[in-house]
Amino acid sequence: MWSASAVSNLADGIVKIALPLTAVSYTTSPVLVAGVAAAFSLPWLLFALPAGALVDRLDRRQVMLAANSLRAALLGALALAVALDAGSIWLLYLVAFGAGTAETLYDTSAQSILPQLVPRAALPRANGRLYAVELAANQFFGPPLAGFLVAGGVAYAMLGPAGLWAAAVVALLLVGGRFRVARQGTSTLRADIAEGVRFLWRHRLLRTLALMVGVSNLTTTATFAVLVLYAVGPNSAIGLSEPGYGLLLTTLAAGIVLGSLVAARIERLLGRARALGVAMVAIAVVVGVPAVSTNPFVLGGVFFVGGILLTSWSVITVSLRQQITPDRLLGRVNSGYRLLAWGSMPLGALVGGGLAELFGLQAVFVIMGVLALILLVGMFWVTDAAIETAERAAT
Question: Residue 323's CB: how many other CB atoms inside 10 A?
């Protein structure tokens, strides 16, 4: 499972950078370029809740196999279209939407299957190791590799992730066992979805964390949806090449990977609530720093340190959600949480593109940085006492 995650997330990392870079070859409109990121994340808004209900009904490994097979087929078809000179911005939208739909199933299954593989007491350690390889592949190796692949030819940039997702399918076939959660009685898909949503919304701690991460993801998506226009090209503010842009994003990824390895140490040093507050400040600094500096070395340094600090948010919150949610509800709770967390991303991409059109690229970074700082209000409800109370109630 760990190996499949590494390969699959490397494909994710390539696609998320290669698609916007490819879009620039078809259009220079900030709204249309940002629309690629919106199309990729829109399925979280549309299909997250049904995906969670399906994950709680079906064998979670089989769902992951189907999702990766679909993504490999989509990127292979796009590579063929590009090779035949039949590519367009609208075809990029279609492939991004399809791959994003498969991602809702894969990621919900991947987070929900973990308590079936390791004891609950080991979840923070297991999540740390998974985050290390996922983020290393997705953000450390994927972005620079995407830059070089796009520079070598768009068809290569699409064939690469298609082959990687096919390799992830092979790795998943080696995972033995059944991963279908036992169900009591029968119910409709709609009733299953409603049960998961009620559990999440009535749980004040989980609800607060979900709302906070939803708005923070809006700020980061708005920023990075237009950052390519601010950073790439001789006439841009930063003036980077495509590979240089990939390397800039790699500094953030390197910090995130290192942060995933030391997240447990940060948690012990600061406590869970304080570590989450520091992570939120780090997000505000990362999205706001392009407004005050166009020096790639300054940006890279801030991205690296910010990446170290913000990773503790993911490790702490994912482990907590797995620990305090019953197995039979975990897929639905994960999907409801991600509906807020990822469903805000297409809105963020569109907001980023719209603000850039109206006020310029620099204004996007200022507004998003301030919005991320406002989220610290949520820490009034996210305290160590509230976390411990939720864990005791689950036990």
Answer: 17
What phi and psi values does residue 119 have, to the nearest 5 degrees? -60, 150
User: Distance between alpha carbon 278 and the CA centroid of its chain, in Å?
Assistant: 20
Structural contact between residues 16 and 40, judged by C-beta atoms closer than 8 angstroms = yes
CB 263 within 8 A of CB 212: no
Encode 251-285: b = buried (16+ Cβ within 10 Å), e = exposed: bbbbbbbbbbbebbebbeebebbbbbbebbbbbbb
The continuous run of DSSP H or E covering 105 comes out as helix 89-113
pTM: 0.78
Question: pLDDT tens digits for 205-263?
Answer: 999 999 999 999 999 999 988 898 899 888 888 988 888 888 888 888 788 888 888 88
Residue 179 CA: distances (Å) to CA of 117, 154, 214, 321: 9, 38, 29, 19
**What is d(CA 146, CA 12) in angstroms, rounded to the nearest whole number?**
10
The encoded tokens of residue 84 equal: 């035949």
DSSP assignment string, 250-290 = HHHHHHHHHHHHHHHHHHHHH-HHHHHHHHHHHHHHHHHGG
Q: Is 294 exposed, middle or buried (0-12, 13-18, 19+ CB in 10 A)?
A: middle
Tens digits of residue pLDDT in 181-211: 887 778 888 999 999 999 999 999 999 999 9
Instruction: Assess contact for 372 and 288: CB atoms under 8 A.
Output: yes
Contact assessment for residue 135 and residue 311, using Cβ atoms and an 8 Å cutoff: yes
> What's CA 344's distance to the chain center, in Å?
11
Does residue 134 contact residue 6 with C-beta atoms inside 8 Å? yes
What are 94's two structure tokens?
Answer: 């279609």
Tokens of 305: 């340190």
pLDDT in tens, 47-90: 889 999 999 999 999 999 999 999 999 999 988 888 888 878 88
